[in-house]
Fold each of these.
Amino acid sequence: MIVYKKPHEIEMMRAAGRVVARTLRIVSESIVPGKTTPRELDALAERLIREAGGIPSFLHYRNYPAATCISVNEVVIHGIPDDRVLQEGDIVDLDFGVTLNGWVADGAWTYAVGRVSEEAQRLMNVTRESLMQGIAKARIGNRIGDIGATIQRYVERHGYSVVKDLVGHGVGTSVHEEPSVPNFGKPGKGPAIKEGMTICIEPMVNQGTFKVRTLADKWTVVTADGKLSAHYEHTVAITKDGPDILTSE
Ligand code: MF3
Ligand code: CO
């Protein structure tokens, strides 16, 4: 069942989304190449979320053990924050949800650690732009397939691949609601996009093969070929005036 939100409910989600965006900004600015670890970033994110009156939505969700997912280089998504030191040239995806007064917003962004290769930067640019192109299709009258088809077309045109095993999702009073929001598909297919839908659009884009595998910890998803992957995510509300990005300051 898709739950359509009233304007005042969307404002509750926007408040949560502001905490997501602010936390992403502050945590990403704290990264020092050769020094910072994902575990430290997770602790800082959790502190900022709680100080803002929020709850880290991912913590204990399906037994997930941390406030954030931190996915470095070939890790596509769901990296568990650990003590590996982030090195100059790494790319690091920070992904988390914030629950504020019962309403959830979920966002992710990939950051360069110091100076990165031109190729890594291009992968990040293409992935971020694919998210923005997908968001532009999140309009009343379109279908969910229009979002994925647009993302996939843009990504593949630039020589990269889209992960198929993981998808975006509806969001509201819990992290995952209907509908699924794939980053691939056919235009004109899937559920109709209607006013009051709130969805997370989150392309995961690989430098090489689209294939992924999950490590023995049951969470960490890595590229099958060990090449780089990038991930960006916004929580978006569908309004009469078009897509409204809730995970922004
Ligand atoms: N990364 C997923 C998403 O953005 C959610 C992760 S759930 C958790 O939808 F269990 F890993 F926390
Ligand atoms: Co999400």
Amino acid sequence: MKGVRVDRLLSSMGYGSRSEIAQMAKAGRIALEGAPLLNAASHIAVTDDLPSRMTIDGAPLDPLPGMVILMHKPIGLVCSHTEAGPRVYDILPDRWRRRVPPISTVGRLDKQTSGLLLLTDDGALLHRIISPKREIRKTYRATVSRALTGSEGALFASGQLLLNGETKPLAPAELEVVSDTEALLTVVEGRYHQVRRMFAAAGNHVETLHRERVGGLVLPPDMAAGDWNLLAAHEVAAIFD
Ligand code: URA
């Protein structure tokens, strides 16, 4: 097997330009199974265990392309690559922002929404998760400014609710009332500001919004806002449960 050129791989992972990586290799900063890999033009097999076999300056190689990150998104960060202001990407290691393909959020949470956010560099996976056909369930905990009337559940479940400015009704959603001003809402779509607009359509106003679940993945209750971790393959599979 021919494998992948080391300079091409490391450059796509944000370690530097191909010429910088050639210099790093010459300087003995790249090692494979403990031995310096001096020629960055050499080819290596990219196996899942490469990050434990290759080191850069003595540190294990970053995760290979195909990573999935679960983040507890804090309030105040934007999910966009282009919008001004602090971004969720700023929480990740600097080098990861230079990766190609880039790491992107799987859908978006508003700046003022917290909770479970997935990020990946795997475009096909991203599209599978956000595809409306898959109907991945997303559960949000919302607090609202006015007491719930008791009619919201039927409205949201009706499959008839039209959001302001739209022509296609929302798919049925499930509401579980927690208290007068707090509820869990599970939706299968990901329209722009969907949950806030749903409560607005019911004559209410969302004060706080937090996503607790995406498919079979639940935000670990002990995970602090701003923390993140890489998902193992079985956890990624749980998204589709
Ligand atoms: N619905 C919203 O209104 N905002 C979000 O961030 C997610 C869903």
